[in-house]
Each structure stands twice: as C-alpha cells, then as structure tokens.
Design goal:
single chain; 6 strands; 13 helices; 299 residues; 3 domains; Histone, subunit A; alpha/beta; Rossmann fold
Length: 299
C-alpha cells in the first residue's frame, strides 16, 4: 500500500530562493515548514543567517527557526530526534510537510538518520576551536586524515566545522566518527520527495554578492558587534560572522572582511552543490521554474 504521508525536501545553494519557493508551496498545500538551516536555529542571528523575514514567518508556520540561543549546544543528532517528532505530529493533520534548508547534514538527519552521537564537553569544543583558529584548516584536515581515513575520504574537506565534529568525537570517545555513521538509511514512515534548485554560476554568484550587500545595509556590523562576547561559540564559527569578527579584532580592514564574506559564501555554495548532487533521487530545477515544480509534486 502506497504511503499517503510525505515530506517535500527543498535543497540547493545559499541565496538560490529556497525560502520563497517553500512558502509558495506551503500555501498551495496548506501545510507547514520545517527549517533545516542550522544557522537559522539561533535567535541572535537575525541578519547574517538571513532567516525568513517577519512577514514570511507570519504567512506560514515555521518550525526550528530562531528557537535556540548561540549559548546552546545543538547538533544534527539532536535535530533528528526533534524533527522526526515534529513531522509525526504534523502528519496527524497534514499529508505533506515541507522541509527546506541548505545544511546537508541536517537534511540527512531527517531523510537518513544517524546513530546516537556522544555528548561533547564544552571545554574541549572551545579548545579545539582555538587550535583551529591558530593552526588553520590544514591542521584539522591532517588530523582527521590520520585518525579517521574512512571519514576523511568522503567528507567535505573544506568544511572546518564538519572536520571539528569528527575530531571532537574522537577526542571524547577514542572512536572514529565514521563508526557512528548509520551504514544504511533508517526506514521512515513517509515518502520523501527531493527538489533541488540551481542556476548558472554567474547568476548565483551575483545573487550571493547582492545578498551580502543587503545584510550589510540591514545592520550586519551592529549584529556582529553585539555578539563579540560569544565569538568563540560553535554557532558563530560560520561565514558572515567570523569575517566581521576578524575586522573587529583588527585582523583585516572592513573592505577585506566584506570581500571575504562574499568569497567564502561563494565557496560555501559550491560545497552545498557538491553535497546535494551526490543524491541521485533529487530532481533539479531552475529556481524560477515554479510551474514545473508544482506539476512535478502534483499541485
């Protein structure tokens, strides 16, 4: 018997238009949205994480948006538990739930699941983040390559937070991060439909650069200044914040910081596409092909 409950997963690079599409589809389906953007979980990141604006949030009920503080520790394993519980609750009254976001690991948490991950000591996390700051990306890459070659062979080697997570697990348990990865996806009691949004690189990069300019106009500098006491927190080791922290710490000029945000966001988008393209079940569309997407999902 075909499962009548489903989730519609919308993925793609940052700035491509996932939020606007998800809201339009949610209205058409009379449903709600679960966010899988790990930066948008935090209530202090109102500008640099570019969450849905107040008008958009008022139009459609969103879950896992601005529900945490940067002082809270939260990971994909915890998200899996909370998100699956929310999906089960929503499926009691909705046939389709929309899942949207650019954090591949959090999409996988819902679609594939994880084995239970160990709790990480806060002091260890701070220590390793400090070492990363001092020693650089090559240090963490070489560390993971040595202790967990299986994970290193398949991971995003340019993502320092993913590499740090693997090192945290190893330092805490003595076990490889790869040993905690679910070998086969968990069976979910709902159908999973995946839609990917993309466009040509030149247009995507323009959208990214324009978004950074809008964030600056909206007060990104002031937002980051208020977060200076928390700059070592895990939630803030992310593009758009770490570059401005460098400016405030007199490590670069403002012009350099802005250029670095744009450059690092473009690199982030490239990594997102690399991650999402590995999943052959994803049906890809240009971001403006709304009519075709609606036809594909039967709206």
């Amino acid at each position: 018997m075909k499962n009548t409950k489903r989730i519609l997963v919308i993925v793609g690079p940052t700035a491509i238009g996932k939020t606007s599409l998800s809201i339009e589809l949610a209205k058409a389906l009379n449903t709600e949205i679960i966010s899988c953007d790990s930066r948008q979980f935090y209530k202090e990141l109102l500008i640099g994480a570019f969450p849905p604006n107040p008008k958009e949030l008022s139009e459609i009920k969103h879950h896992f948006i601005q529900h945490l503080s940067v002082e809270n520790d939260f990971n994909a394993g915890q998200f899996e538990i909370d998100a699956i519980a929310k999906i089960e609750e929503l499926h009691k009254t909705k046939d389709t739930i929309i899942i949207v976001g650019g954090s591949g690991l959090y999409i996988d948490a819902i679609c594939k699941g994880f084995d239970k991950m160990p709790k990480i000591n806060t002091e260890l996390r701070i220590q390793l983040n400090q070492e990363l700051t001092e020693k650089g990306l090559a240090w963490i890459q070489n560390s993971i390559k040595e202790i967990d070659p299986e994970f290193y062979a398949s991971c995003d080697k340019q993502n320092p937070q993913r590499l740090l997570r693997a090192l945290e697990v190893y330092k805490t348990t003595g076990e490889k991060f790869s040993s905690y990865k679910t070998q086969s996806p968990k069976k979910r009691p709902f159908e999973i439909i995946k839609i990917g949004l993309n466009t040509d690189r030149e247009l995507l990069y323009k959208k990214i650069n324009d978004r950074v300019d809008v964030m600056l106009e909206n007060g990104l500098l002031e937002e980051v200044r208020a977060l200076l006491p928390y700059q070592k927190k895990n939630a803030l080791q992310t593009v758009g914040y770490k570059e401005i922290f460098s400016f405030y710490n007199n490590e670069c000029t403002l012009e350099q910081a802005v250029a670095n945000i744009k450059k690092n966001t473009r690199r982030f988008a490239k990594r997102q596409l690399t991650w999402f393209r590995k999943d052959e079940s994803t049906k890809w569309f240009e971001f403006h092909q709304i009519k075709e997407i609606k036809t594909f999902i039967g709206v």
